[in-house]
Amino acid sequence: MLSHLIYVSNRLPQCTQQEIDKILDACQRNNKNYDITGVLLYSDTKFIQYIEGEYSQIIQLYDKIKTDKRHSNPVLLTSTPIQKRSFPSWQMGSKKVDVASVDFKTKVSDEDRRVFDSMLAGQPGSDTKAIALINKFFK
Ligand SMILES: Cc1cc2nc3c(=O)[nH]c(=O)nc-3n(C[C@H](O)[C@H](O)[C@H](O)COP(=O)(O)O)c2cc1C
After folding, report:
1. Is the pLDDT of residue 139 over 90?
2. How far apart are CA 10 and CA 114, in angstroms?
3. Which of 37, 43, 66, 124 is the most buried (most CB within 10 A)?
4. What is the pLDDT of residues 101-133, one digit of tens each?
């Protein structure tokens, strides 16, 4: 069943930009084979990753990612079925964000800011709001 998954984690100091580039290389290498698409948001201290694909595939990938030493304390915010993909052509889009002065593509409301802050704090909220917000970084 087509599903999506969002988690937040702490980027560790050893995870330099060079390491991020390696992660994105792995995404390009692997995600296509598993028909996984999504986006990775990262700041100096945090990751938020949005992954979509067959439920078994995204869970398998998440299990692998969780053990990666470049981040810590992954917290699953949601993993639910979806009708269609939000990022069908992205093996893994990425964007560096400054969590203090978040740079969205479109205007965001105070409500968006609250949704983002609760995601960063690892508090699952509404799925729909979380996806809508992630989209605003890219579209
Ligand atoms: C925040 C984060 C996100 C990651 N996302 C992915 C991903 O979407 N796909 C992937 O294959 N590896 C991802 N990785 C890397 C995996 O943990 C692992 O290093 C990689 O899949 C190994 O690839 P290989 O088996 O081709 O050597 C991520 C790692 C981190 C820290």
Report:
1. no
2. 19
3. 37
4. 777 777 778 888 899 999 999 998 888 999 999
pLDDT confidence of residue 102: 72
Domains of the chain (ranges, CATH numbers): 2-97 (3.30.70.100)
C-alpha triplet 137, 72, 28: angle, nearest 5° = 50
pTM of the model: 0.95
Share of the chain above pLDDT 70, in %: 100
Pick the residue whose CA is nearest to atom 30 on ligand 1: 65
Residues with CB under 6 A from ligand 1: 23, 26-27, 29-31, 40, 47, 49, 61, 64-65, 68, 70-71, 92
CA 64 – ligand 1 centroid, Å: 7
